[in-house]
Amino acid sequence: MSFIAWLDTSPDDERRVRELVREFSDPRTVDELGLRQVRDAIADSLFPGSSTLHTRARYFLFVPWIFQHAAESAAGDELLTKAHRAEKRLITSLSEAGVTVGLIGGRAGEQVSTLPSSVYWSALRRYDILTVDVSTAQLRKSRKSRANKDGHEEYAAEDTPRPDWDIPVASPPGFPFTVDDGFDLSTEEAQWLQERIVRSTRGSYLSYLLSQPEPVNTKKPLWQQRAVGDAPEDVQISVRDAHLVSLLMNGAALLYNVLVAERYESAGLKSLRNPVTSSLKRLSRWAEDAHSTWDDVATWNPSDVWDGLPTASADRIDRATRLFVNEWVRVIQTDGPGLASSQNARALVADRERFTKQRNSRLEDSRSLATWNGRSGITPFDFRWRRVSKVISDIQDGLHRARAR
Question: φ and ψ at 153, to 5 degrees?
Fold first, then answer.
């Protein structure tokens, strides 16, 4: 049996670990070359406060409402108990109403172990919806009281703390036992949430997209959104950099699969059918994409990416990883995208995998090799776009309903 104990961790640390656990459920996203830190740093810069665990925008209101209601009569552990009970009731209410797309705990019901508050907490703080930097158990009652000389309870202005939540939009009647409109944001809710995220993430791609009348296209990558062409120059540069990082790091992952496939077949392993042929085909298709963007690739300097990241994001990328990315780009620019025949590219990827995985290197350890699934980490980085675009779309849908009236 395995479990995760949260000891002295911040909400953001907890979010990252939950994301890591989720990532291992899909072998196509496993980080064989230790490049997750690059992906996450860029995602944090493009979409501050975002997470792969975020499913729907209305949770940014559901969670504050639940804790506000609990704080009317409790504090500390009792407040947390009441809030968690209400979060579980919310799952039942939404399920009974047939609202399942993006529902956290939809399968487990009230037995769910990961509640919306644990998923959204750090983002609520980042967007200034949660006004205090505390854990869930450290929230207070809405007001402090004291007894007057007659023994009756009264509230004094000096005893009233700053509210934990800055959310002027009231919860719908009956919440959380009934949930009006499920995950559909009302006009007021959408306008408030748009303003709050735009203001708190100003200068980011997220802020820019939420400011545009053009709806996002959730089926296209973040760098193919129509609004990019009219974005400020610094936003366009960050989007271009994200595209090139995704493209070129995907090339490294695909070449890694070729190297493992070759060793797999040479070791006489038979569980996978023609892994070398399949891996080479994927790498060949990648080379075509690299050729189509060669003008950008040929002149690109990844050091500019590190310099352009916010300090907190840049500090998460260690020196060895920066050196690998820099050298990988240089090899591609020198040898071209025909990576399968490039000895420089092969050696660089092999050395990186051995450095990252140590004794568990599939290129060295026969037991790790035997467990290979044939598609390790082949999914290009999307920088949380699949989740972020849904949250943006939820907000834009609410705004659109306002304009349609």
Answer: -75, 135
Query: What is the Cα–Cα distance from 162 to 132, expressed in whole angstroms?
Result: 9
Q: What is the pLDDT of residues 181-199, one digit of tens each?
A: 999 999 999 999 999 999 9
| Phi, psi (degrees; rounded to nearest 5) at 240 | -60, -45
Where do we find the tokens 């939540």?
165
Helix ranges (DSSP H) in 336-384: 343-357, 366-370
Kindly state the helix (H) or strand (E) to which residue 11 belongs, with its residue range.
helix 11-23
Rg (CA), the chain: 24
Helix, strand, coil percentages (3-state) for the chain, rounded to 5, are 60, 0, 40
Q: Are 95 and 103 in contact (CB under 8 A)?
A: yes
Report the alpha-carbon distance of residue 189 to residue 167 in Å, rounded.
10
Q: Which stretches within 227-337 are classed as H helix?
A: 233-266, 275-292, 294-299, 303-308, 311-314, 319-335
- Decide if 92 contacts 31 (C-beta within 8 A): no
- Give the chain's mean pLDDT: 88
The span from the first CA to the last CA of the chain, in angstroms, equals 54
pLDDT 10s digits, 319-328: 999 999 999 9
The mean per-residue pLDDT over the stretch 319-348 comes to: 96
Would the pLDDT of 154 be above 80?
A: no
Q: Is the predicted pLDDT of residue 158 greater than 50, yes or no?
A: no
Rounded distance between C-alpha atoms, residue 202 and residue 316, angstroms? 22
Q: How far apart are CA 278 and CA 280, in angstroms?
A: 6
DSSP class of residue 212? -
**Contact indicator for 241, 304 with CB cutoff of 8 Å:** yes
Which of 35, 31, 36 has the alpha carbon at shortest distance from 324? 35
Q: Write out pLDDT tens, residues 197-247.
A: 999 999 999 999 999 999 999 999 999 999 999 999 999 999 999 999 999
Mean pLDDT of 291-299: 95
- Collect contacts of 34-37 with beta carbons under 8 A, ≥24 apart: 34/321, 34/352, 34/355, 34/356, 35/249, 35/252, 35/253, 35/321, 35/325, 37/316, 37/317, 37/318, 37/321
